[in-house]
Amino acid sequence: MTNTHTTTGLVCAHHHLYSSLARGMPAPKVAPRHFLSVLENIWWKLDAALDHDMIYWSAALGAAEALLSGTTAIIDHHESPNCIEGSLDIIHAACTDIGIRVIPCYGVTDRWNDEGKLQKVKSTSPMTRGAKIGLAESKRYLSSGRPALVGVHAAFTCSDETLETASELATQFHTGVHIHVAEGPDDQGAEDRLQKYANEDWLIVHGVHLQKPIVGTIVHNPRSNMNNSVGYARPAQWSNRIALGSDGIDSNMMAEFQLAFVAGRADDISFSPDLAWEWLWNGSHLVPETQSDLVTWNYPRMDSSWHVAYTTSLHVTDVSINNEYVLSAGNLTKVDLKEIRRKAEEQSQRLHHALAMSE
C-alpha cells in the first residue's frame, strides 16, 4: 500500500481572513461575560482598526496556511468599517498571489452610525452610510465578473432596509447572501426576519439558536462555537445542506471535521463520523472547481471518515490548482512562507498597537 493518498481540494465555507492577525493580541481590558461582549470588546474593535496593508497580509497568511492544510478555496466574510472601498480587491490579490481560490464578500452592517460610533440597531432604523458604502463595494466587485457573495454581518445589526437591499443586490447578480444567523442569543429569531429573502444560494452561518427552518446552506463552525461558548448548533436536525467553516480560526478543514465529529458524538452517542465527513465534502458543491484540484496527503486512508476521525499528524505534501502545483513537497511554490509570516507579524504588531491605543 502506498503511504500517500490524493483527494480533491477542501473548501472553507466560512472564513474571516482578517482574523489571521488576531493571534497573540492583548487581552481586552474588560473580560467578556457573554458573546455580545466578545464582539464589542474584541472583534468589532479589531475590524475597525484594519487598513489596506493589514488586510493584504492577513489574507496572504490565511491563504498560505490554507494550502498547507489542503484547503484550495476560501469563502471569506470580510469587515473593515474604516477601510471598505477596495478591500475585496485586496483580498482577491492576496489569495491570487498565493494561488488559492477565494469567494469574498463585504459584511455590511448598521451597527456603526454615521459618526463612526457603535449603536443599537432597530429593524426600522435607516440604512447607515457605512452600509451603503459596503453594498457599493460588493456591487463594484461583483460587476467585475469574479465569483463573490453579498455579505451581511447579522440581522440584529442591520435594518430591514439594509437586509432588503442586500437581498436585491444578490438577486441582481445571481448570487447568494453570506450572513451570520442566530450565532448567539442576541440574534435569536433572525430567521423570522430573513425568511422572506433567503433562497438556496444563501449561506446561513452558525445557526446555533435557530428555532425553525430557513432555506440555504447552513455552515457549521464547531471550533468557533466552542471558543465563543455559544452552544452546540445540532445542524443534523435540519434538512438543509450542511457545510463546514472555521469562522476565522484557521483553514484546517480536516481539524474542523474531526471536531465536528467529536462535538456531534458528545451530543449524541449515535453520531457517526460519516455525517461530519459529508458536511466536510459538501463544500465542493459551493465551489465546484475544487473537484478538479488535487491534494496529496501523507496518510494512505484519506478516503475513510472512520480513519481520519481518529488519526493525528495528517499532513499535506502537494497541492495542484488549475493544473499548477502551488504546494510541492510541503513548500509553497509562488511565495516565500517565511516572508509572508514576517510581513504578517509586522502588520499584527501594528494592529495590536492600534488596539492598545484605542482603549
TrEMBL record:
Provenance organism: freshwater metagenome
An annotated Gene Ontology molecular function: hydrolase activity
UniProt keyword list: Hydrolase
InterPro entries: Amidohydro-rel, Metal_Hydrolase, MTA/SAH_deaminase
Pfam families listed in its UniProt record: Amidohydro_1
Protein name: Unannotated protein
Bilayer-spanning residue ranges: none
Domain Amidohydrolase-related, residue spans: 9-260
